[in-house]
Amino acid sequence: MVTYNEKQVLNFIVKRLEVELTTPEHCFMNQDEEVDDRNNYVFFIQKGDCDVRVKDRINDVIEE
Hints:
Strand content: 5-15%
Helix content: 10-25%
Largest sheet: 2 strands, antiparallel
Number of strands: 2
Strand order of the largest sheet: 1-2
Distance between the termini: 38 Å
Shape: elongated
Number of helices: 1
Radius of gyration: 17 Å
C-alpha cells in the first residue's frame, strides 16, 4: 500500500518528467564531461536499446 508521503514523492517526480525524442545513435553524455545542468538528469528509455560504454583508465580499454 502506498502511503501519503510516498504519493507526494511520486507526484513530485511525475510532474517534473519530460519527454525527449531523439534519433538513433544519439549520445546523451560522455565520460569525463564537465558537470552541468544537462547531465544532472536520470533517463528512462521507453523503447529501443541503450549502450553504456565506460573507458577503463587502467587498462585503456572500453567496457560495454
